Structures are given as structure tokens and as C-alpha cells.
Amino acid sequence: MSGRNKNSNSLGKLGKSIFNISFYRGVVAIIASLIFWEFAARVHLPVIGMIPAPSAVAGSLSSLIFTGYYWESWYVSFERVFSGFVMAQIIGIPVGLLMGMSRKFRDLGFPILEVLRPIPPLAWVPASVIFWPTPQMSMVFVTFLGAFFTTVLNILGGVSNIDIRYIRSARSFGASNKDIFWRIVLPATLPSLCTGMTVGMGITWEVVVAAEMIASRSGLGFLTWRSYVAGDYPVIVIGMISIGIAGYISSSIIRLLSGRATPWLKII
Amino acid sequence: METKGNGNAASGRMVIDSISKSYGMGPLRQKVIQDCSFTLEPGKLTVLIGPSGCGKTTIINLLAGYEEIETGSISIDGKPVKGPGGDRLVVFQETALFPWMTLMQNVTFGPRMRGGRNSREIEGDALSLLQKVGLGDFRDKYPTQLSGGMQRRAELVRALINSPRVMMMDEPFRGLDAMTRELMQEYYIRLFEEHRITNLFVTSEIEEAIFLADRLVIMSYRPAQVRTVMEINLPRPREFSMLTSKEYLQYKKDALEILHEEAMKAFSTGTATCVADFLEAYSEIEEKK
Amino acid sequence: MQIPSAKPKGDAVLAEITNFEAMAFRLKQWIKSPRPYLMVAGLLLFLAVWYMTTELFKLPRFEKLPGPVAVIREWLSEDPSYGISIYVSEYYLHIIKSMMRVFEAFGLATLLGVPLGLFMGWKKVFRDYTFPIDETLRPIPMLAWVPLAILMWPAREAAIVYLTFLAAFFATTLNTLLGVESIDEVYFRAARCLGSKPRHIFFRVVVPGALPYIFTGLQISMGVAWFSLVAGEMLAGEYGLGYLIWNSFVMVQYPIIVIAMVTLGFIGWASSAAIRFVGALLMKWKVREVSP
């Protein structure tokens, strides 16, 4: 543990002293790959040459960005991601806590979880479309599944890893069961809940994008897929980049909230 | 210091009468403690010492009420002990400060749980205790931001503020470097001499044991039994200069002879120890549920 | 001072017997405890709820879903009404096709990703040039690549494998890189002080040091490979379990959807378990070494 600390410390220092070199090398690498990409597209290299050139993408972007359709896709996807994600937390957190604290409930529920978990969330798309009355609900449900298992498993792990001494000393100090739950179990589980949320958010975007391509007529995933079907290839790249940015924004929000919720994890 | 409550020099007499404890079931059953009897005199500091792995932590767990005894009885001021309670507080090996609470929140946890006093009063008490151990400026820091020695001191204060009848220290200074350890002993002995709460201190260091103790209980190897009880009649307040006094050296010599014998027994039953250690650890995991 | 002779021989034997007995005893206790029955009860409860909602009471909305009886009947039928059961070779064709794709992609990702990650961690300059590109591409969900993958590769088959590969490749590379970075600087210094050649440092320090992380990476990589495969097959496949799911949906052969889902879950689980098993086998030394 101390070794790792030392290591990351020295890396940090190393990083600072040659930050400039690394940074410029990074810039050079990205510019070089952009130039290569443009070149490959112009001379129609196999495989990579099939990707629309950056210049074409930039051209498309300048017109697309002023359409309402583009921004509506953002909104729709975000709405799906957040509804699914929030639902997964609302249902997953109590289930995880219950399973973590009651052995009976865990024995009963864990096998079901383990049977359902390995099924990729996208395999649920058709069943979800059959079941839910509206496409929006089926999208949100698949998104929910993506984050649900991660949340439950992380909380379960968090609860079962609580140091028993915390609970014992709280008992000695006269804490009631209620106090122990709110002041010990919950905060002690918070770090793993945050980890679960960060991972879950990543999965959620993966799922939303694919589900939109497969079975929806709106959202960033559909925008990307439609551009392919319609032969408007530069927009595919715009769609991908937009999804990347949207995903990045979402994880940043989660990271920020996690940091706020667990201030004791930041060491000075 | 106005640490009124249930603790004062007159109460806190704890009688441990031939207790036993085993771990495991069926073929795995291992007796860890057998017919163990000793008394914690009110206002005195009793040190429990024995070879490592002899079940000292188990004794603490039994006394604190975290685990149940199989036979015998434990009573405090005449009343039998049942389950954990605020009259017996434990300072654990390494730190058990709640990482998600600031120092102040940690220290005031006990009084807040018991209720009845307003938070300003509680915080005032906590602060003056924290200042006494040199932590006044760190009240809003999280435990991870403190050094090992600071964490132990904070933990002492966290127990002390509740004025328990008995305080139990489970090798509290283990893992600290020699300098910090010495400093901690100093803080600890001053706090004890001032408050005179009945104390049980578990350690495997003989020098620390004699320096702190009014009474030294030497444990045998597994199953743990009381091997010898030694009264340590060094004057209080204790000073480090006593470490070179004739009396101290004689106590040390006597205790070492007994301990050495027990340590040799422990060494010669090598593998059995491993199984026993495993069982103890396993039972803790099991208990977590 | 007299040092007692080291543990007598009989003691070690005793310990082993105790361990074996311990296992037998624990098994007996486990069977006696309510745990295994609760587990079975949990699964039965799940099946019962599924059966009652879809087939027995035919609750609104639920009635549209295939029930367990319909699924199992179809699955085990010698003459399935929708053409897929354990007696039909087409079922296995889909399974094999999916597995082949995953193993191609996974193998390629491991062959390329592990050396790349090791090299990135080992040579600072190399990492400086490659890592920013990796970081720029990584936030894009793998599944957003589907249309571009189809566009880039002339054959559908290649597009699906590429997509699966991409997901696995990122996971493997990144974890390998993290593995190299986790190695304590002291080992490098020690190796250098002992006069090791760079080649030796690479094979004796970098590779074994990163191994635990590499295996974590491979596990994640296998998980995301199946994840992406399903999406790829649903959108662009001609065979495979993902395609089977989608096609059965389009053709309104609903029980097959569930058959394919369960099959997918089982194979995905089995392939992760296989990696965990190999990892545990190779990593025995690691556990012993790290634990004090």
C-alpha cells in the first residue's frame, strides 16, 4: 500500500516536471493522426479511408449544429440516460442494502441476480419493446438494467466489507439500530456506491446508444444510425463525438457529486 | 475536567470469574480461553500480557460484550455484563475512528448517541479534551488526514469523553514507531492518572506493561489461562526515569521468565496455532454476516 | 537458551486432516443450514412469478411475453414450432458463430493490447505519443462505433469482429498500462543496480509485475466483448445469438428470444469464469507474495 503511494507520488512529481514535454507530444500525436485521417480519406485507403474526412465532418457540423433536430437528440438521449440511471439507483440502492444486511434476503435474491446479470443488457431490447407500451419506456427500462446490477453488486460488496469494529464501537457508544444504519452502514457504503454509479453511468450510455440504434426513432444513437442509413456519412462521426462528449459530461457530474458526498476520501 | 457521568474512582470494579470460550464447531472446536479469572480494581490500571495469539483480543471482546462467554461470569460493580454497553468502552488495535466523520464528530459521537445534553456543551468538553492531547487544531480534519499517533490519541479521547466505568485498550499502540509509542504512553498515563477510570490495557510489550500497570496479569498460551498476577508497586505519577530503577528491573526480570516459558510453548505447537488463528479470524468473518 | 525443536512431523499431518475434516464438516453444516434451500427457493420464486404473470393469470402486458413453459417446451422439443431447440443444428450454428467472433476479437485484442499496454507503460515517450489518442477515443461508447464499423469494413463479418475487438482492446490496453504503472519504482532501480539489460527488465520486472492487472483487464475485456457482440449482431449480423434474438423479434417468434438470451448469459458467464480460473491458477504466487 505504502509502495503504491510512493509510486503514484513519484509519478506525480515526474508528471509535473516534464508536463510540458508530455503535453506537447500529446498535441503533436493528435494533430498527426488528424492529418493522417484526412490524408487516408482523400486517397481512399482501405478500411480507414472509408471514414469521412475531418474536413467533411467539420463542414457537416457547421450546418448541423444550427438545427433543432441535433439538439433535440441530445435532450432525448440525456433524458433516457438519466431516467434509467436514477431508477436504477432508486431501486438498486435499497435492494443492495437489504441484501447486504439480511442474510436471508441475500440467499434468496443473489441467485436470481447471478442468473440475470450475465445476459448483456442489449439482449433485453426486444423483450423490453414487447413488454412496455411505449418505445420511450422500453428504452428507459433497458438503460435501467444496465446500471441496476452494477449498483446492487457494489452496494452489496460495500456493506459486507464494513469493518466490524465500527459497528461494535458504535454499539458500545449507545447507538441504536437506526443510528447504526444511518451513521455507520450508510456512510461506510458510500464509496462503493459512488464507484458503482461511475461504472453504471458508463454502461448506461453504451446501452442507450445501441438501444436507440436498434429500436428507436430519436436520440443521439438514432441520429448516428440514421446518418449511416441515409448515406450522410460525416454525420456518423459527429454523432459519435457528440455521444462521447455527452458521456463525458455525465461521468464528470457523477464524479463531482461523488467527491462532494465522500469528502473524507480526499487526503488533504 | 468535569467529566461527570457514571465514571469515578469509586466504581468500575469488574470481576471476571472463570470464563471460557471456544471457537469453531464439531471437529474444529478449539478452546481459546479456559477458566480465566481476574479482577479489575476500581481506579486501577490492569495490564494483560501474554504471548501473541493467546486470545487477548478475545478476552476484550468478551468483556465488552461483543461475544458471549460459554461458562463463568463477568460482572461490573456487582451487575452481570450482558451485551455491549457504554460503561465499558474499547480502544481497538490500530484505528477504529469512523473515517467519514471529522475528528470532532468522532469524539462527540458517544455523547450525541446518549443524548440529553446540548451539542455546544458536548463540543466544549470534546475540545478541551482534544486540546489536552494536542489535537485542538485538528478538530475538523478527517482521520485519514492525521498521523498514526494522532489517531490513537483521538481514539483515547473519544472513549474518555463518555466517562466509562471501565476502559479497555486492545494493544492500542501497536504498529507505532518507538518514539511515537513513548509519547503515546506518556499521554495515556497522564490521562489515566488524572481521571482514574478503571483501565484494562492489553499489550505484548513487557516494558510498556510494567511502566503502565498497577497490576500485571500474565496469560498462559492457548487455551488462555491466568498464569500469574503481579502487583506493580511503582509510585505514581510514573516517570520514564523509573525504567532504570531497581524495582522496575526486578519486575521485568520476573515477568520475562514466565513469559519466556509461555512463548516457548507457543512456538513448539506451531501448526496448531495456525489453525487456531484461522479459526479466530474465521469466526469474526462469520459474525459479520 | 534452549530452542525447542521445530514442529513435530505428526503435527503437519494432523493439520491436513483437520483441513479436510473441516471442509467435510462445513459442507455438512451448509446443507443443514437454510442457505441452499433459500437459494433454490429464490430461483423457484422467480420462475413462479414469471409463470404466473405470463401464462397462468395472463396479466396485461405480461401476456405478450413468452412464459417459462412455452420457452422450455420449445427448447427441448424435437420438432420445435419456431425452428430452434437443442435438437436443431441451427441453434448450435448460432452459438458457434457468436463464440468464434468473440474469441477472434478477444484473441486479437489480447495479442495487440497486452504488448501495446506494456510498451506504453515501459517507454515514457511512447506513452506520451499514444496515450492522448487513446484518451480521446475512449469516452466514445463502443456501441457508437457500429455504423462506422459497418462503413469501414466491406464485409459484415469483419465489421462485427472489429466492433467486438475494439471494446476488448481498449479494456486490455488500459489495464495493462495501469499494471505497469502499479509496479513499485524500487524494482526498476534494483534491477538497474544489479546491471540488468533493458530486455531483462522488460521480461523479468515489467511483465510479471503487470500480470495481475492484465488478468483483471482480460476479464473486463471478455465481458465487454460479449456486450458489444450482441449489439453488433443485432444491427448487422447474419448469424449469431444477437442476430437470433433480433430476428426472432422481427419474425414474432418470441420464445426463441428468451432461449437465446439465456444461452448468451450462460456462455458469457462461462467464458468469464474460465478466465478467472486461469488467472487464479497463474496468480497463486501473487497472493502469497503480497499477503504479509
Low-confidence stretches of chain A: 1-11
What is the H/E order of chain B?
A: EEEHEEEHHHHEHEHEEHH
Largest sheet of chain B: 6 strands, mixed
Class derived from helix and strand content of chain A:
mainly alpha
Number of E-type strands of chain B: 10
User: Quick one: which chains have the greatest interface?
Assistant: A-C, 70 and 68 residues
In the CATH hierarchy, the third-tier topology of the largest domain in chain A is known as MetI-like fold
What is the chains' assembly state? heterotrimer
- What count of structural domains of chain A? 2
CATH homologous superfamily title of the largest domain in chain A: MetI-like
Mean pLDDT across all amino acids of chain B: 80
Helix run count of chain A: 11
Q: How many runs of DSSP E, i.e. beta strands of chain A?
A: 0
Shape category of chain B = globular
> Mind telling me the CATH class of the largest domain in chain A?
Mainly Alpha
The average pLDDT of chain A is: 86
Largest sheet of chain A, described in full?
none
CATH architecture of the largest domain in chain B: 3-Layer(aba) Sandwich
Structural shape of chain A: globular
The CATH superfamily name of the largest domain in chain B is P-loop containing nucleotide triphosphate hydrolases
Provide the gyration radius of chain A in Å.
23 Å
Could you explain the architecture of this structure?
The complex is a heterotrimer of chains A (268), B (289) and C (292). Chain A is 82% helix and 0% strand. Chain A is mainly alpha-helical. In chain A, helix 4 crosses helix 5 (103-116), helix 4 packs antiparallel against helix 9 (177-215) and helix 9 packs antiparallel against helix 11. Chain A is globular, with a radius of gyration of 23 Å. In chain B, strand 1 (14-23) and strand 2 (30-40) form a beta hairpin. Chain B folds into two domains: 14-87 and 166-288, P-loop containing nucleotide triphosphate hydrolases (Rossmann fold); 99-163, no CATH class. In chain B, the strands form two sheets. A six-stranded mixed beta sheet of chain B has the order 6-7-8-3-9-10, sandwiched between helices. A four-stranded antiparallel beta sheet of chain B has the order 2-1-4-5. Chain C folds into two domains: 36-65, no CATH class; 89-290, MetI-like fold, CATH 1.10.3720. In chain C, 79% of the residues lie in helices and 0% in strands. Chain C has twelve helices and no strands. In chain C, helix 4 (89-122) runs antiparallel to helix 9 and helix 9 runs parallel beside helix 10. Chain C starts with 8 loop residues before the first helix and ends with a helix. Residues 1-16 and 287-292 of chain C have low confidence and may be disordered. Classes of the chains: A mainly alpha (268), B alpha/beta (289), C mainly alpha (292). Chains in contact: A-B, A-C, B-C. Chains A and C meet through helix 1, helix 2, helix 5, helix 6 and helix 9 of A and helix 2, helix 5, helix 6, helix 9 and helix 10 of C.
